[in-house]
Amino acid sequence: MAISLEDSMSILLEKIKLQKKTHISLEDCYNRVLAEDIIADMDFPPFDRSPLDGYAVRMEDVQSASSFNPVVLKQVDYVPAGSWPSKKVEIGMATRIMTGAKIPEGADAIIRLEDTEVQQDMVSIFAAKDANHNICRQGEEICIGQIMLKKGTVIKDGAMGILAMLGRSKPLVYEQPKVAILATGTEIVSVDQPLTKGKIRNSNSYMLMAKVREAGGQPILLGQVKDDIKEMEKKLIGHENIAMYITTGGASVGDYDLMEQLFYKMKIPMLFSRLAMKPGMPVITGFWHDTLVVALSGNPASANVSFEVLLRPLLRKMAGIIEIERPRAEAKLKKAFNKKSKSRRFIWARCENIDGALYAEPIDFQGNGMLSGLLPANALIDVSADSSCLPIGTRVNLRLLTD
Question: Fewer CB within 10 Å: N-end or C-end of the chain?
Fold first, then answer.
């Protein structure tokens, strides 16, 4: 009996485990997942500093400055970025300062270089409006003790910069879950083999490899195997530290659909074998030595949907990611979908924003065995069970395929 997607998700989320934690070099951290909160151990900026090239002055001295009545001050010091002021700014004084340099004691304003003129050690100030705002204050961006990055964050460019700023050369991250992928079927040949009558190339493994990587996992391709239970078992055994096995093919009810028999032979207790949805109904699952084993349909679109709505969230949970689900949205149909369905159905679609409203257009090629329809799709329309035809303008629920 088929179970709902939500029930299957609840069953598996209770059983899967987070990956181990490890320290890795910062340069290898892009797209990895933080396994700790990153707490600032410093203020940033670490001191009051100048955001521009100019002169550090006392606002009281220059507030009346104009092009007709410039204020003339004496330059007493020069502070390039990376150095430290040596003199205090007192009445009638100015310090030449560069972008990023520390504000000297006594100064409370920065005059832009273009608003000055210099003759020897005397500086004429021609404008000072808002000059007291030209200071980056200590801790205005980051305060000591502040949580900058939360555990479970996927490390992107901004996070890389924050980690570097805080001196985290070897952050603590989760190990990437290893996912072994095996294509089954006597009709399947490898991608570098010529096609003979009745044969097709192994496209599923490479499609799923990409999806595993996008979800934060580390794919391991086991190739393809004929419809032979002993050969299937040989392909699956002997691998270490695998978080999930995914097979494609043999998960339905045909004469050569052998995955249920394989589960029995390998003593894998079956949790469920059907999901109440189309495509992607055949999904046989169980745990083998604490490792999740999932047998998907050999049909590309079916395997893709099953992975997208069930396995991707699970894999992201294993990887330690906070947000495991895709973003959801509502849209209007730009084109009718003229199919009734007793089962819950996921429809590949292309969505776009038109004048502030989101529209979704079902892709023409929706068959279980069709792969090309996935190319333009950036969303899945989630249609409830016992639905009728969907005319243009119908409001539908979307799972966006971009985060």
Answer: N
